[in-house]
Specification:
Elements lengths: L1 H28 L13 H10 L6 H13 L14 H34 L1
InterPro entries: BPD_transp_1_N (IPR045621)
Protein name: Peptide ABC transporter permease
Membrane topology: Multi-pass membrane protein
Length: 120
């Protein structure tokens, strides 16, 4: 059983790599940047923002930087909430999600076992 679980986890690595790569390049193919939609900014401000977030680097440099940050668990700054990183936002909402997931799991086990006993 352990061999099966290990094999399935190792098979998930290329799948995650492909999904990460596809999502990165799809976001880069979209017109504009993360900062163009909200309000019109002067060109010098846009240049400063693009330099700060390395959006003016070549796309392959951005991609390898993105992979390196993901490997280190750094999901970057939040563009919506100032002074927060994505890690902070995930960490603050994870306990609520974990409680909800655990409650759903126990409810599913109770209902599933009950239905199985009734059906047998």
């Amino acid at each position: 059983m352990l061999k099966f679980i290990l094999r399935r986890c190792l098979e998930a690595i290329p799948t995650l790599f492909i999904l990460i790569t596809i999502s990165f390049f799809m976001m880069r193919l979209a017109p504009g940047s993360p900062f163009t939609g909200e309000r019109t900014l002067p060109p010098e401000v846009m240049a400063n923002i693009e330099a700060k977030y390395h959006l003016n680097d070549p796309i392959m440099t951005q991609y390898f930087s993105y992979l390196k940050q993901l490997a280190h668990g750094d999901f970057g700054p939040s563009f919506k909430y100032k002074d927060y990183s994505v890690n902070d936002l995930v960490a603050s909402s994870f306990p609520v999600s974990a409680k909800l997931g655990a409650a759903a799991f126990f409810l599913a086990v109770i209902l599933g076992v009950s239905a199985g006993v009734i059906a047998a």
